[in-house]
């Protein structure tokens, strides 16, 4: 099994989402999967021009020559494509959305009715990768992922595939406290759950209800997280103030 992560954080290799991805991939590798983590911010990906040339002039291929020449085949060659990104203003970051827009060539321009009586573009290929999502939000509360969850569920439908896992971590900044004597064991337990999720995806192509419940449990009380978070913002504002 080939699992490819498309990491869509503007922070690249320094983001909190990466910590989640690394643990998830450890579990997937333990179960025998071949894995790859691609940092989209490091790639040259132009914006879709919306001219439908990938459907009309060069069917199945964008007329722009950039890193999507390699990324699109990497997406299609995956058994599971993982979209990993933080929540930016209630949705996916621009670098992730831009990548997704450029996946249009894998579809056909023609319309078809799906099993729910809605319409979408027909598929160009017989087999599409299954989709998983890994995301974190700086604020407490699973409701931070409502828009993103709906977006990826619709995206799975658009790409004629299945959304097999959604892993959402509220209070994402707790990863910055990994050396904290109180947080360290709590984060250690959570990382073990992420590795378990990686193994389950390889072995069962889905997550068990038990693992999903455990992954979504709050790690620290929201009131405490907000208190220390605001204190840290006060410190940073003071530190960066220009007189």
UniProtKB/TrEMBL annotation:
Gene Ontology MF terms: oxidoreductase activity
Q: Report the InterPro entries cross-referenced here.
A: Flavoprotein-like_sf (IPR029039), FMN_Rdtase-like_dom (IPR005025), ISF_SsuE-like (IPR051796)
Per its UniProt record, the required cofactor names are: FMN; [4Fe-4S] cluster
Q: Which UniProt keywords apply?
A: Flavoprotein, FMN
Domain (NADPH-dependent FMN reductase-like) ranges: 1-104
**Which family does the UniProt entry place this protein in?**
Belongs to the SsuE family. Isf subfamily.
The protein's name is Flavodoxin family protein
